[in-house]
Amino acid sequence: MTGNVLILSAMGAVYVILFFCRCLFGWGDKSCAEAGIVRAGIAQTTGSRQVQADIAQVWTNGAGTMAVLADGIGCANTGAVCAQIAVDTILDRFEPYHKLIDPLYFFRSAFREASQRIQRTAGERRGGASAGAVFINRSHLYYAVAGDVRIAVLRGQEIIPLSKGQTIDVLAAQAYEDGKISKQETLWSMEEKRIWNYLGQDGFHEVEVCEQPILLKQDDKVLLMSKGIFEELSWSETEDILIDTAPLQELAERMANAAEQKNNPQGDNGSVILLQRLEA
Question: What percent of the chain has pLDDT over 70?
């Protein structure tokens, strides 16, 4: 067990070093900043937790922009390491692309590889990560989710939720629509928010993906959020923040601060990524 802890600690240090090298020396085309065809803003809060186990990064290359948010699962630094593995795996796969012809295949294969890497690294320690990823090319948005990360678009003054998340209540609602369970069984399940699929899980299931690409309009704002944000802020509170024309980084920080000000003693780690396509 001690050996696993040392390995996870070492892996965590390596991933941090590699990330800063990526930002400092410019490995790949563009990263860690507004670049190419998309503006970006990232902010985080630890909530009531002692360790920040969320990892949020954005990378731009010739194919477009990929944003990934991972919410780590596990004690001590296990969750943070698992989240970093998830983000690094997806972005490492994306980095060499000059054109991404099949984003849905990319998401499915990259998420599965991330899940396998987490399992190999965590070993006997319970660990994993919820993850959400958004790919934006010059006109369309594609997304994928494993676990409980929310993805939405602010269009005009209204937020349009895109992802459902892979939690028990969502699974029950889908089973009811498919005629597999009764209305009463569905109602019993609607308060159950536990995730039923995540990276690193034994028997990892398929990820949630958008079956049709979403055509982005000028001034649309895309957001990815982990639990510490979307469980603290209502959609209307989020809309009130995002309709402002301030820079995306400032808006992201406002969302994180608003979540912190709820002072929830059970508040989880929270992260938000904001994206906005530049004019062609």
Answer: 75
For the chain, which residues make up each domain, given as ranges?
A: 2-277
Whether the CB-CB separation of 258 and 250 falls below 8 Å is answered with: no
Q: What is the tens place of the pLDDT at every residue in 203-217?
A: 888 899 988 999 999
User: Could you report the per-residue pLDDT of 172-184, keeping only the tens digit for each?
Assistant: 445 436 565 455 5
Pick the CATH number of 2-277 from 3.40.50.720, 3.20.20.300, 3.40.720.10, 3.60.40.10: 3.60.40.10
Non-local CB neighbours of 171 within 8 Å, separated by 6+ positions: 189, 196
Q: What residues have CB less than 8 Å from 31, skipping those under 6 apart?
A: 22, 23, 57, 58, 59, 60
**What span, in angstroms and rounded, lies between the C-alpha atoms of 271 and 53?**
10
